[in-house]
Amino acid sequence: MEPRPRTTKFTFPAERERVRDVRRWARKALTGLGLDPDEEQLAEVPLVLSELGGNAIVHGCGGDRPDVMLTAGLSLLPSGGLRVEVTDPSTVRPEPRDVDGDATSGRGLILVITYADRFGVDDLGPDGKCVWAEVDLGAAPQAAGRTDT
Which pTM does this prediction carry? Predict the structure, then answer.
């Protein structure tokens, strides 16, 4: 039996209309990693990934830029967690904003931070940044075909 991948990536153009594609991909990718996208711990992963993607488009690229490619990723961690990430070409770090009750945007990063067990930004130098969130899944994933006694 072939071992399941531990990381999967999806490249998409920096266009707001593509965020729905990221959400769809996330559900399929979770299944491909051997996870159930309907499990309570994972139900919000597509939303988190689409929020990170939307932020990358709006703030990392300054709006729709079909000439710029972004990368979404999901990775199983040895610690038993799942890392959700999006890379963009900007070096500007995201910051949660205070928004009033009538605002129609500005809550995405707060949603990500609220859902995630950990959140951060990795500097990629001249290539931009990777904004990520990690969700604890419980026990560390086992390698395919391995059993502990």
Answer: 0.84
Helix axes 19-32, 45-55, angle to 10 degrees: 140
Answer CATH for 7-136 from 3.90.78.10, 3.30.565.10, 3.40.50.2300, 1.10.3290.10: 3.30.565.10
- Contact, 115 vs 100, CB < 8 A? no
The tokens for 135 are 């969700």
* Tens-digit pLDDT profile for residues 28-78: 999 999 999 988 889 899 999 999 999 999 989 999 999 999 999 999 999
Residue boundaries of the structural domains of the chain: 7-136
Cα end-to-end span (Å), the chain: 20
